[in-house]
Amino acid sequence: MREQDLVVHLARFARGLRERGIAVGLSDEVDGVSALTLVDVSDRAEVHRALLTALKIRRRDWETFDELFGRFWAADARVANPTPQPMTLPPSDRGGPVRQLPPGHTVRLSERESDTSVPDGKIPGYSAEVLLRRKPFDECSAADLAAMERLLVRLAAKLATRRSRRLVPSRGRGTPDLRRSFRRAIGTWGEFLSLARRARAVEEPRLVVLCDTSGSMDPHTRFLLAFVLSLTRAARRTEVFAFNTSLVRLTPWISPQKIGLTLDRLAAGVPDWSGGTRIGESLAEFVARYRDEVVNAKSVVLISSDGLDRGDTALLAAAMRAIRARARKIIWLNPLLGDPRYQPTARGMEAALPFVDHLVPAHNLESLERLLPHLAA
To answer: Which of 43, 194, 319, 335 has its CA 20 to 30 Å from the CA of residue 140?
Structure first.
């Protein structure tokens, strides 16, 4: 959502609070907008805490605030569409249709979200940016890739500032750390002159990316590699490999500042680009030559492939088992998962699945954005 739309949406949320008897002034709304610029607006919990504080909601009004927040801010961690004039609160999302996501994930949509009809002159249609984020990679052009680079830069910035669940000592705001506070008080004869605090750490992810560049992946490869190159801006300890009928280490070739030129150089330099694929043999080569060097207990391994392989599935399973034994988690990006009819029944995909922590779609930019919580968790 653009900043202007966010301001309008927050103003309508504040008016909804006032109509329910909660005193929210114009200065509070300004504070609310400022607070939202300091948090990840895709993280619903962070938005909730920021607005609860910035709008100065009293404890007795928390229940009403939570009720309206649940209606005005989408439950799938994306900001809901602003409510048209005259203002009416969105209906409850109970009983709405269910959109199916990868195994283990479902998002319930409200009736308002599922209805795509919009009264004339009330709410503008999808912006060009939203359409680009949702456009399938196999329908994108070279011009679309250039336009996506700007969005990918913002995506990298989100990853660079995304906080993990781990708490570390903090000199500023944070959760009170009573144990450290008591230890500190020992040096001042039991007097609490200051309160120790902890806050969620900002950690740089350690990524190892294995990207399938075979012919079946050709409509998606350049976009997925562009996404990976953008991540290297924030995750500098990233190793990138390409595989098809053999494995190639791409890390020395990478220049995240020049995504387009780097992609052209990779396409020209990687042997058998857009050719055949032997996933099992390629991953086995990775295990034998690079696993101990680049994978450790802090590494997240991303494998981008449609899983279409006619090679030895036993070799593939053994390689996946070896990678899983050393990595923190394995995430498999499959562009075919964007089709609701798809089932991971290909021989290669079936062999790999038992060792995969997250099987996620990778058919457009919006699906890749959902990866960020998995990379920072």
So the answer is: 43
